[in-house]
Amino acid sequence: MRPALLALFIAVLVAACGDSNPGVDETPTSVVTIVVPTPTFDPGEAILPTVALSTPTATPELSDFESGLKEIESRIIAARMLFSLRPVAKEFISREELTDHLVRKLDEERQELARKGQLYKVMGIIESDVDLYDLYLGLYQEGVLGFFEGEENKLYVVQDQQALRAEDKVTYAHEFAHALQQQHFNIQSEFDVRQQLSSDRQLAYSALVEGDATLSQAVYMFQYLTEAERQSIQTDAGVDLQAFLSAPHVVQRTFNFPYIEGTQFVFQLFQIEGWDTINLAFRDPPDSTEQILHPSKFVVREQPVELFMPDAVSALGSGWTLTDSDTLGEFFLMAYLEDGMPAQAAANAAAGWGGDGYHLISGPGGQQVLVMRTAWDTNADTTEFGEAFRGFTQARLGGEWEGVPGRPGSAILHTEEFTVMTYQEVFEVRIVFAPSAEILDTVVDALNAVLQAAS
Description:
The chain is of the alpha+beta class. It has helices at residues 6-17, 64-80, 95-107, 110-122, 132-143, 166-185, 187-195, 199-224, 227-236, 242-246, 249-273, 275-283, 289-293, 295-299, 313-316, 329-338, 343-350, 379-397, 437-454, and strands at residues 2-3, 89-93, 144-149, 154-158, 321-326, 353-362, 368-376, 402-403, 410-414, 419-425, 428-434. Strand 10 and strand 11 form a beta hairpin.
């Protein structure tokens, strides 16, 4: 899927990939100001692959529009160095039909978004009256220009005019790259598997998929589009961004992560042995957003720590149920902290992530309990995250952290909305959000008993 936030993505491509066309000013002209995270690597003098193709002659059977698409396909095949194994099914639809299709796809994720919405409310990412489904519906209705449907193995193309505009060309280039990925690496099957594992694993794979397609699109754009076409894309991308700009910071960052950090990750892999390295990554994909943020950890396959999550539901008794169980990941924790501190400080606090897990538990009267375990590479990493989280939470909720008698390493924060406790030991920070001190004590006692018995 390719969003319409082209000014942002092109700015990232220029920053991450360097200037592949010296002497041409590639700086976006859009007046929209969006904070772009600092790249996590220095690509130095970037060399993108160069392809030379003759322009195919349109046959009488093809319209100018379809002939233009065929030309883009041949150029992406050469640029990405992946042959098309079979024809790609295409359906030409209107923009209204595209929106309807995206709404239907998002409806399939409504339950998952409802669960994440509850998590976001407990963590203060969205207000209590905000529906996360509505937020993402606004983003997709506003931002998507075209998409490849993996389950149908079909590429949907908006055709509302006879001539291909510059934005239509790069959209098709991006989506056709996804079609090649499906043919060679069966990306839809991998997404289905990861959906059952964790959100962090799924987001990491999405970063590989979208980063690869975005780099392929960049090669096409820089080699085949004129300077005027590139400038028109960047200028037009500043239109209709209201839903994106009004979304909470974590939602914005999560929506953009596959394209921003994903492109940086893929480009660094490309610097090793070109497309061969990226092809190998599809056959042994990244297992965490930590590996996307720190490609060196992907190269050595540093795996996330699997953390046992005790059953706090039984301790709470009748009326309490497990609503969600998942992994947040380094990227989510970083984006979360970014909303209350400088981006570099948040990145430093989240770096050294080793693994995490959480349980979101719902009870009578809409009460929510959030239990988190986070593992860290070193004691210094543990302390840095713990201090950053406590500072961020105090600034968000107010109040003062207090020590807990009889519980060394623990701190508790009482507010009108939640009672929050953190417990820090070597290589681990545990966090509990509870609606009252009494419920928090019940949960913490149960956790301590189970974890001590397991150790």
